[in-house]
Amino acid sequence: MIENNICLLTDSYKVTHHYFYPKGTEKIYSYLESRVGAEFNKTIFYGLQYILKKHLEGPVVSQEKIDEADRLIGLHIGEGIFNRQGWQHILDEHEGYLPIEIKAVKEGTPVDVSNVLMTVENTDKESFWLVNYLESLLLQVWYPSTVATLSAEVRKLANFYLEVTGSSKDNLDFMLHDFGYRGATSTESSMLAGSAHLLSFSGTDTIPALTVPENYYNDNDIYGFSVQATEHSVMTSLGPDGEMDQILNVIDNARNGILSMVIDSYNYRNFLTQAGSSKSKLNRAINEFLAIEGNKVVFRPDSGEPVSTTIDCLNILEEGFGSRLTDNGYRVFDSNIGLLWGDGLDYQKIRDILFAMKSNGWAAENIIFGMGGGIHSGVNRDTQRNAFKCSAQLRDGKWHDIFKNPLDSSKKSKTGRFKLIRENSSFKTVPIDSDGEDYIQTVFKNGELLVEEKFGDIKSRALMYSNFL
């Protein structure tokens, strides 16, 4: 069976719709938006170019694909259901190139919710049915867009607390680290989520994400970086009685740079107390490592209640390594050490930790965060309430506005055809014949990708938003 058969990349019920539309239908016009009620008030649009290049660009329809889809749908739903004639028309008349036009806002752009992000319409009246047939595939842009939005909002949060506590922002790019590969639903999803995270941060352990800029966004630069770090399989190698010997072994064999050590294999308090005690071998080993310019030790508690454990760790480390005050009066470690919290985090928990640190007199620069499942699997389509709806249909040469208006008014859809303009500092969706520059532009038409963005340019747009206080 062909793995990437465009004729089958849809929901089952959509296969039946080609004979349900009103007689005389010539065009379908549909759009994507983040509806009112989204978790964050702006959505950073990202990932469409990946979908277009992977699934829609070029002659994607073949006779083999049509025959295979006809056979499968015949068994799956019933004989004569599959739109063989419609797909054959695309193959014969368009040489397998999809007769659709997609307009979209530039990727990396933060757009206020309840605004159009993308529109889709057919360019051949015989293929009107194709627009919403592609919804299932195109709407998957919700995932990288939502992850990009989440990471951007965490960066804004981190930036705010660095500012109010008088912290250095030298490490802002690394304040949220992606640990999500193992918690992703697939390698492909880890690539998408991981690359979306890299629009706002530079720290990642998701190596597959590093391939996305080059393979899909015309950019050979490396946008993600990591450090040497331990895990419990390393730290518990010699058992409880040999923990200290193994820690010394780790430090003795570490390369210069940043060393991150998990500290909760048995008792994180004992670990940190020994690390800060001038009488311990561990303290001497750490200080010898830190004596080399550019070296840093990061301690990672990996269990417990996030807020109270964080404050506890900071206080214990201060007793051993000392602290100084920022200009705003918040404590920063004297030594080049820090704390990494990477267990069970989401946006709200990061906010709670940073607030607690400020309340307890700690500068935000003492900590970095790691998120795994929170980035890769802690979001869904309803996080930003993404929806793809038909808003206009051309029948017998006349456009008809289409909309839904259920009792749940938050799901009311837009009507007509649109352009996206800027009004003061915000975006606004207006009728297509309105005045003003349109911020959704044609990126794909008749099987050809018309706009190819570089990952670095997309990242720059996202950072303009997340760096703004």
Outline the secondary-structure elements.
Blueprint (H helix, E strand, L loop, with lengths): L24 E10 L7 E3 L3 H9 L6 H14 L7 H11 L5 E5 L5 E3 L3 E7 L7 H4 L1 H4 L3 H23 L11 E3 L8 H11 L5 E2 L7 H5 L11 E2 L2 H4 L7 H11 L4 E5 L5 H9 L4 H10 L5 E5 L5 H16 L1 E3 L5 E3 L3 E5 L5 H13 L7 E5 L1 H4 L9 E10 L2 E4 L16 E6 L2 E6 L9 E5 L2 E2 L5 H12 L3
Parallel strand pairs: 6-7, 6-14, 8-9, 9-10, 10-13, 13-14
Antiparallel strand pairs: 1-5, 1-15, 2-4, 3-5, 3-19, 11-12, 15-16, 17-18, 19-20
Describe the structure in your own words.
With 469 residues, the protein is of the alpha/beta class. The protein has 2 domains: 6-145 and 385-461, nicotinate phosphoribosyltransferase (Alpha-Beta Barrel), CATH 3.20.140.10; 151-376, TIM Barrel. 34% of the residues lie in helices and 20% in strands. The chain is built from 16 helices and 20 strands. It has helices spanning 48-56, 63-76, 84-94, 130-133, 135-138, 142-164, 187-197, 212-216, 232-235, 243-253, 268-276, 281-290, 306-321, 347-359, 373-376, 455-466; strands spanning 25-34, 42-44, 100-104, 110-112, 116-122, 176-178, 203-204, 228-229, 258-262, 296-300, 323-325, 331-333, 337-341, 367-371, 386-395, 398-401, 418-423, 426-431, 441-445, 448-449. It has a 7-stranded antiparallel beta sheet with strand order 16-15-1-5-3-19-20. The protein has a 7-stranded parallel beta sheet with strand order 7-6-14-13-10-9-8. Strand 15 and strand 16 form a beta hairpin. Helix 6 packs across helix 16, helix 10 runs parallel beside helix 12 (281-290) and helix 13 (306-321) packs across helix 14. The radius of gyration is 26 Å and the shape is elongated.
